[in-house]
Amino acid sequence: MTRAAPLVGIIMGSRSDWETMRHAAETLERLGVPHETRVVSAHRTPARLVDYAEGARGRGLKVIIAGAGGAAHLPGMAAAMTPLPVLGVPVESHALKGMDSLLSIAQMPGGVPVGTLAIGRAGAINAGLLAAAILALSDPALAARLDAWRAAQTEGVPETPADNRA
Ligand code: RP5
C-alpha cells in the first residue's frame, strides 16, 4: 500500500520534544491526515531548517506545525521562509516551565505570523486539530471526520463529577 503524500509537516527542535509533539502526530493520525515528522533545529541545524521551510510548499505540504522549547525560534524562522500557515507549539522547558517557549513563539513582529498554541500536550493536540480544520476547508471528507471527532468528544463528557454523585 502506498502512503499518501504528507499534507502537514511536524517539525521540532530536538528529539526531546517528541514526547510533546507526538500528541500532534497522534491527533492527525486519528483524523486520517497524512503527515511527516522531522527534527529540525533553528540553532543546531540551521541549514536543515532553510531546506525544509523553503521546500515545504513545493513538496505539497499545506500546514507546518513547529514545536520548540526555551529560546524557541523554530516556528518564527520557519514562518519567515515559507508562505504556508505555521502553528507553533511551545514545549515545556525545565528552567522556566515553557514560559520562555511561549513568549518566544507568540511575540512575532507584525508581518510574519505564527499561530501560537498552549504550552505542552494541550497545545500539540490543538495544533493537530487546527491543522485538520484548515485542511477541512477544502476537504469535505475530512470535515466530516472532524465533526465526528468533536461529537464524540462532546458525548464523552459526563454530566456529574463522580459516578456515585447525583
Ligand atoms: C530546543 O531546545 C528544543 O526545541 C528543545 O525543546 C530544547 C532542548 O533541547 P535538547 O537540549 O533537549 O536537545 O531547541
From TrEMBL:
InterPro entries: PurE_ClassI (IPR033747), PurE_dom (IPR000031), PurE_prokaryotes (IPR024694). Keywords: Isomerase, Purine biosynthesis. Pathway: Purine metabolism; IMP biosynthesis via de novo pathway; 5-amino-1-(5-phospho-D-ribosyl)imidazole-4-carboxylate from 5-amino-1-(5-phospho-D-ribosyl)imidazole (N5-CAIR route): step 2/2. Pfam families: AIRC. Its EC number is 5.4.99.18. Gene3D superfamilies: 3.40.50.1970. It catalyses: 5-carboxyamino-1-(5-phospho-D-ribosyl)imidazole + H(+) = 5-amino-1-(5-phospho-D-ribosyl)imidazole-4-carboxylate. Catalyzes the conversion of N5-carboxyaminoimidazole ribonucleotide (N5-CAIR) to 4-carboxy-5-aminoimidazole ribonucleotide (CAIR). PANTHER family: PHOSPHORIBOSYLAMINOIMIDAZOLE CARBOXYLASE, PHOSPHORIBOSYLAMINOIMIDAZOLE CARBOXYLASE CATALYTIC SUBUNIT. Belongs to the AIR carboxylase family. Class I subfamily. HAMAP family: PurE_classI. This is N5-carboxyaminoimidazole ribonucleotide mutase.
